[in-house]
Specification:
elongated, 40% helix
Length: 110
């Protein structure tokens, strides 16, 4: 308790230095199927870099292909105000249905 009471009053700034290097993947055979599904539904594919940690590092360490993909806007993700629209959830369902149907025939068995 004394240590907590000794903390300065007011805003506290915390800096976190991530010790793990960023991981990247070409997604193996999964990525072309996923991109084709998104392209067919949206007419465009957008790639970006995600600056937070995911289980992709663990998956890559075991030699499996991976792609970080999800519904909605990344801004509110994992925040106190996290939400996605019903349309984004439906869209994700459509993309994942294509991935489930097509990727196992093209990719390795997990």
């Amino acid at each position: 308790r004394a240590a907590v009471e000794a903390l300065p009053r007011g805003p506290i700034r915390v800096r976190v230095n991530d010790a793990e290097p960023a991981v990247t993947s070409e997604g193996g055979d999964m990525l072309p199927v996923l991109e084709r599904a998104v392209l067919n539904l949206d007419g465009q594919v957008r790639r970006s870099f995600m600056t937070s940690w995911t289980d992709a590092a663990n998956i890559q360490a075991r030699g499996y292909p991976w792609v970080v993909f999800g519904a909605g806007d990344l801004g509110p993700a994992h925040s106190d105000e996290e939400w996605i629209s019903e349309d984004d959830l439906r869209h994700l369902t459509e993309v994942l249905a294509v991935l489930i149907e097509e990727w196992p025939r093209r990719g390795p068995a997990l």
